[in-house]
Design brief:
Layout: no helix or strand
């Protein structure tokens, strides 16, 4: 099925495990609940494709082309999927399972990831400005050097996550669990950390100038060289 023209195709529930769909045109295709586990989708055109509930565990989705219409991956299974360098701007990935997925240097700007599970995922170097990660699970995830500025993470879990040198300026992090997380050299300028759990977090050399730390829990938090708000007690 390599280079296949499947534009607008109805592939609802299709069994496409380990299918070779490299460079296939799947734009505007309906792939609800389709099984694409282990499929090769490199350079496929997925613009506007509807992959709600699709099974994409271990799939290779390293497509380089620009998505002219946002892709819908709501509730899809993307565990262990290869999404390095992929442009998913504006995609709907609400409640998607991305455990262990590789999203290194992917473009996730304005992506909807509310309630998604990204435990152990590689998000290093990702562009994540204005992403919606409310109530998402990112325990043990790698967000080193990620740009997460102006994002919404209310109620998210980032226990033991790596956010070294990440840009979290003006990000909404209220009620977030960052216990045991590493935020060395992170930029948290004007971030909202109200009621956040920062117990045992490493904030060495991090910038928290003008951040809101009201009612945050900071038991055994490492603050060596940290720039703190002027009103911090």
């Amino acid at each position: 099925m390599r280079h296949a023209n499947l534009k607008d195709a109805d592939l609802h529930g299709a069994l496409l495990q380990k299918a070779d769909l490299r460079a296939a045109d799947l734009s505007l295709a309906t792939l609800l609940d389709a099984n694409l586990s282990g499929a090769d989708l490199r350079n496929a055109n997925l613009s506007g494709a509807d992959l709600r509930g699709a099974h994409l565990r271990g799939a290779n989705m390293r497509f380089e082309r620009r998505l002219y219409e946002p892709i819908v991956l709501r509730g899809a299974d993307l565990r262990g999927a290869d999404l390095r360098d992929v442009n998913l701007c504006n995609a709907d990935m609400t409640r998607t399972d991305l455990r262990g997925a590789n999203l290194k240097q992917a473009n996730l700007r304005d992506v909807k990831l509310k309630g998604a599970n990204l435990s152990g995922a590689n998000l290093s170097g990702c562009m994540m400005t204005s992403v919606d990660l409310r109530e998402a699970v990112l325990d043990g995830a790698n967000l080193n050097s990620a740009i997460v500025a102006s994002a919404r993470l209310t109620g998210a879990k980032l226990r033991g996550a790596k956010l070294n040198m990440a840009n979290l300026a003006r990000t909404i992090l209220d009620h977030v669990d960052l216990s045991d997380a590493s935020l060395r050299d992170a930029n948290l300028l004007e971030a909202n950390l109200m009621r956040a759990n920062l117990d045992r977090a490493d904030l060495t050399d991090a910038n928290l100038y003008d951040a809101d730390l009201s009612l945050a829990s900071m038991d055994d938090t490492i603050l060596d060289g940290t720039t703190l708000p002027e009103d911090f007690l």
